[in-house]
Here is the input.
Amino acid sequence: MSENPEDAADFAAVPDAFQRLWTPHRLVYIQQGQQPAENACPFCLAPSLSDEQSLIVKRGAHAFVLLNLFPYNSGHLLVCPYRHVDTYDKASSEEVAEIALLTQQAMTALQNSSGNQGFNIGMNQGEVAGAGIAAHLHQHVVPRWANDANFFPIIAQTKALPKLLGEVRNEIAAAWPSG
Here is the structure.
C-alpha cells in the first residue's frame, strides 16, 4: 500500500468489517428529487376524490389516512393533515393530536387486517431528510413481518407486494377500529 492517503486504488482490496451495496441508480432521485409542483400536491388533492380513488382508509376532522402509492410493504399508510403544512412544528395542536390518534388506530387496523408483527413509524421532514413529498407533512406507518426484508428491491429494482392497493385499502378500512 502506498503512503499517499489519497490513492483510492490502494483501498480497493483492503478488507474491513463493512459489506457494501452500491446503488448508483438512486443518485438520480437524490440529485433531481421527486417533488411535485406546489399546485400538484397529492395530499391536498386526495381528500377531494372518493376514498377508493385516493386510497383513503379513514377521514378525521383535521387529518386523514391513505395508502402510500409507492409502498415499502403492503399496507404502508400515510397520516396527513388536510392543511398544506410542511413540518411538524407548524401543525396545530388539533392536527398533532389527530395525527397521533389516527396513527394508533392505523396500527390496530393493520394488525387486525394483516397480522403484522411490528411497525416502522416516522416522518421525514424536508427534502434533505428524504421526504418524498416535502411540502406536505405526512407520517409513515409501515407494517412489518418477520423476514419481510430482502435484497430484491435493490438488486432487481422491484418490490414484491402480494395484494393490489384497492384490495388492501378495503381490508384496512373494514378493520379500522370504531371511535
